Predict the structure.
Amino acid sequence: MNFASDNTAGISPEIFAAIAAASTGTAMPYGGDPLTARVEARCAEIFEHAVAVFPVATGTAANALALASLMPPWGVVYCHESAHILGDECGAPEFFGGGTRITGIAGADGKLAAAALADALGQRGTHGVHHMQAAAVSITQASEAGRVYTAAEIAAIAAVARGNGLALHMDGSRFANALVALDCAPADITWRAGVDVLCLGATKNGAACAEAVIFFDPAKAADFVFRRKRGGHLLSKMRFISAQLDAYLADDLWLRNARHANRMAARLAAGLTALPGVRLRYPVEANEVFVDLPERVSDGLLAAGFEFYPRGEAGDRFVRLVTAFSTLEAEVDEFIAAAGALAAGRTAR
Amino acid sequence: MNFASDNTAGISPEIFAAIAAASTGTAMPYGGDPLTARVEARCAEIFEHAVAVFPVATGTAANALALASLMPPWGVVYCHESAHILGDECGAPEFFGGGTRITGIAGADGKLAAAALADALGQRGTHGVHHMQAAAVSITQASEAGRVYTAAEIAAIAAVARGNGLALHMDGSRFANALVALDCAPADITWRAGVDVLCLGATKNGAACAEAVIFFDPAKAADFVFRRKRGGHLLSKMRFISAQLDAYLADDLWLRNARHANRMAARLAAGLTALPGVRLRYPVEANEVFVDLPERVSDGLLAAGFEFYPRGEAGDRFVRLVTAFSTLEAEVDEFIAAAGALAAGRTAR
Amino acid sequence: MNFASDNTAGISPEIFAAIAAASTGTAMPYGGDPLTARVEARCAEIFEHAVAVFPVATGTAANALALASLMPPWGVVYCHESAHILGDECGAPEFFGGGTRITGIAGADGKLAAAALADALGQRGTHGVHHMQAAAVSITQASEAGRVYTAAEIAAIAAVARGNGLALHMDGSRFANALVALDCAPADITWRAGVDVLCLGATKNGAACAEAVIFFDPAKAADFVFRRKRGGHLLSKMRFISAQLDAYLADDLWLRNARHANRMAARLAAGLTALPGVRLRYPVEANEVFVDLPERVSDGLLAAGFEFYPRGEAGDRFVRLVTAFSTLEAEVDEFIAAAGALAAGRTAR
Amino acid sequence: MNFASDNTAGISPEIFAAIAAASTGTAMPYGGDPLTARVEARCAEIFEHAVAVFPVATGTAANALALASLMPPWGVVYCHESAHILGDECGAPEFFGGGTRITGIAGADGKLAAAALADALGQRGTHGVHHMQAAAVSITQASEAGRVYTAAEIAAIAAVARGNGLALHMDGSRFANALVALDCAPADITWRAGVDVLCLGATKNGAACAEAVIFFDPAKAADFVFRRKRGGHLLSKMRFISAQLDAYLADDLWLRNARHANRMAARLAAGLTALPGVRLRYPVEANEVFVDLPERVSDGLLAAGFEFYPRGEAGDRFVRLVTAFSTLEAEVDEFIAAAGALAAGRTAR
């Protein structure tokens, strides 16, 4: 039973069916197929805006390519200090950008606050050509602490970004989970709030390997095709990525999967926090539960074969538990029960 | 009916079944799954050598990452002037290498000749630090003209490379097609002949998106994991790439698919060359047919909906026709019949 | 009268004489001249160690090239948060390194503390390939706050670096000023303390444009010549850079110039701190004085034509005053007198 | 006696005097000095056009920075196959451009012909995103064979460039030598003929280390300052580069120096071609003489201590002889006399 990450899950059946449907016959390569066109059309409809959409196979590729298209090589992107682009992509943004820089800013709940951003930008000084130049802001929806940015929070960040001439990028690897948590329109937390480019994740929410880079100003996407090809991220049989995205966005699958995952996280959080010595680090809004477990509980669960990542702090165990579209209620309950048994001094199962 | 490329085909049923089998349950991400380990084991067995194997989703990524690991940023890789790395990857090798250079060398049949390589290397002069430094040689198996390199030809190239301190890379996007054409052991045309790194293609031969970078000296692969991650080419749900490669290499599927595609190419070539005014540009050894068609035939076939790429030369039409694992005999025959009808002054169908 | 920086000064007469001597006749280009060889020999003697020495024209080039030779593209260099490489080189290290990263660490006196470095390295976690990899440490001698690192402090930092497998780089743009402040052997605060590569500045201490990258392990410098040429930093008439360095290192000129500049800074600090409302930010050890001046004094001095950089903070003025080999005692005294007059409510002059 | 290159010469007395004049007193750094401003004003006057001018210390830096500012990372620059940017800069353009490509085109006299350029561009095909994109053309004035491009030839190349949407760069490391050979206005062979950016050399014609990147459309130079700083090519004591350029352009010094060097080359060519068995490879227009010498003559001259670069071909010796502003008539005559003696079967001197 795996709560290590939502990327340990398999493929959502509807997405799998789309791959199956695309697997026979022929189609023109490199995105010249009807499915790829349909993904763009779906995004335009869902986001209620003209868009340029580029499917890629990984979130790191999506983020790095998107950021490179928003910044000169001497640009700096500001983000929360826990951002995936800063800590988990082995410097992909720096590489794709030609030697750009990422500046992390502290903030509660894994979220960049508009005021903190303004403060950081204000401290840049006026050192001209000697400084790398502020060029973009990146926020992660949901954040690396499982919190969501409201439309108002995004708009406040966008206002600071615009006021400093910076583009706004959203790493939306868990965008759907945030969206259903907020229960708003996709447009409300993207272009309407000032987001320029969204990296829309599907992999963590039911796809095998599919992300979409969405430009809300298609005119700014002119160079993207070269960056993608040159990065080795233009798949020849693109239809197999597009098929995933097409199914993901059809019939609200992305929302249904996200709602399920969020519900499982809420259930998990509720069950665990009822146990003695268990403390939530952050309110659970999306599909991640950050929780301190008593050492005996954490160690016992791992020993019993439950999979999750301890965060490596001493004493009480700080762990991250992630639910997915495929997480079963029974699995959640079994985990809670095992934790409860351990908390009560018994064995896990 | 599509002879434009082998990347217009779908997914080989056995490979699709492997994706299906992997699509449920959970697995550790980023290659920490059993399928990825099994792919490496299969490669070691098939190639009869210790290997380090890295699955990626595109051939361009495979080539660019492999070359970057063989060269300093001021390195030059020598290849045939028609090589995919030179003309079809939008500078991916230069980008991943940090500003490396690719030098194309003319040669018959899309093949680099050992003597031509030696000649090019001999002309470099001794200009020291002012010159970029020769660092690697890359050959494409099968070549961009559909010809195959024999073990002896590869060994001759490798000898020149070694003699000049250069690494030898093989772009094997159609490696299986060449292998069955040569009817030899995989080792014979790779490490035994002096190849250091093979980019083994599967996408063109039945996979959806799966290539494997194979180092025959695992010690030289130490940095590869960082390059791959940093390039955005480490898939989180890696098992869906590995599942494809695993099925591809199991039960000789790769060889069976390649044999079929090669047979279809041979059948197509035989049928077309029997027509008046049709001339083969190169002997057909793998799964590509390069042929001059009378203008009326070429134009008529395109008008009738047959898909293939004209090569853009005036007068008689020079076209490339590619067969795949999924090409049907009936399709080949229909194409030949239509060409025959057009050659005889009738309509295509 | 210019206290803005030591780079506003001209050329030390002895260095100018060396340029003059080299200006006639011919010499082989690109460092194939006797002066360049003599610079390396002088460094070997002065530093009491085998060295590989590479003259370049700017400190930014020296630092960026040196760091690039110590790190892979996915490497991280740790330094003090005020380091020139982080805040004043427009990303040159990231550019030359191929997308590396610089992590600034807070610390008193512009100095990186060994304990803070160990702490930062300890927090890296063990996230493997997802993380950029710690690769190097850089310290600035004298620091950006005008303080010097003692041999013991450097050794402590080097011990942490070594323990983590990291190389140690020293930005020595004001190395001579630190050296005479410490009154020790050059070796004591470089290789003997664990420094791998020193960027020895001369420009700020009397040269027109001359810095030397000094590797204490010549074997590690093999690639440097390619990086330098490729960076456009191999001067054809190299002898005019080498002549500067040669004179700089001859007859203790570098030490004499630095002693003079340091004395002028001490005199300036002594004079200013005797005035009411003036406060030193850091003890003055080298040739920089960081001081808070009453607003009326600061503004009055600027209005009177004295040149220096206000640091941009509100209320009382925080300014940096830098002395050089060419600063006259009379200039220092005039500055102090003017500040005194302003502090006493009179005009500057 | 050194005919190896014009970069073996020293400093022109007028330029040296300018360095001397700048060597005392203070000036604001990084180009904030009056001399740097004056260089730009001089260029505007001399070239009869608004310009943005950026002094740098090496020709490789000038070329690489200029080209990077004209091309995206996936751009291709076309030039003659003997161009310095292709064969003598260790990949600096590729590095500064972020992985660009240089395509060399064959042509007589080291010169790119408009027709050959058009032909090469015509063969690019229409392969879209898979291809690197043609972005710029670079020509070298005077060429690497010592020939000059006429205004008409440049205009023809510019027309092809413009017709294909490409920028035109001129490597003018020997621009002055070409200019006086053509006896026209600087504007005639630059912006009036369609050149976008000129890298104006001074080092080979009397400076110590000074080149100027000149944009004829200052609006296109906005990013240049960041590229230059980031490349480590913004000198702190910039006035010492600018002083060289200022003197170079004052009172026609650049033209006088170039005329002298050209005269010496003509004298050398005339003297040598009068000898038996000596053959000019190219007409001598600027300050380079490419000549085949009998082996006995070539070897004898080298043995006698005359310095020049043999080009490495067997049998008769193909050598390059370069004259400079400082070459003495007596040196030329001595060389000719020595060659004549050797040709006549005697010793060199």
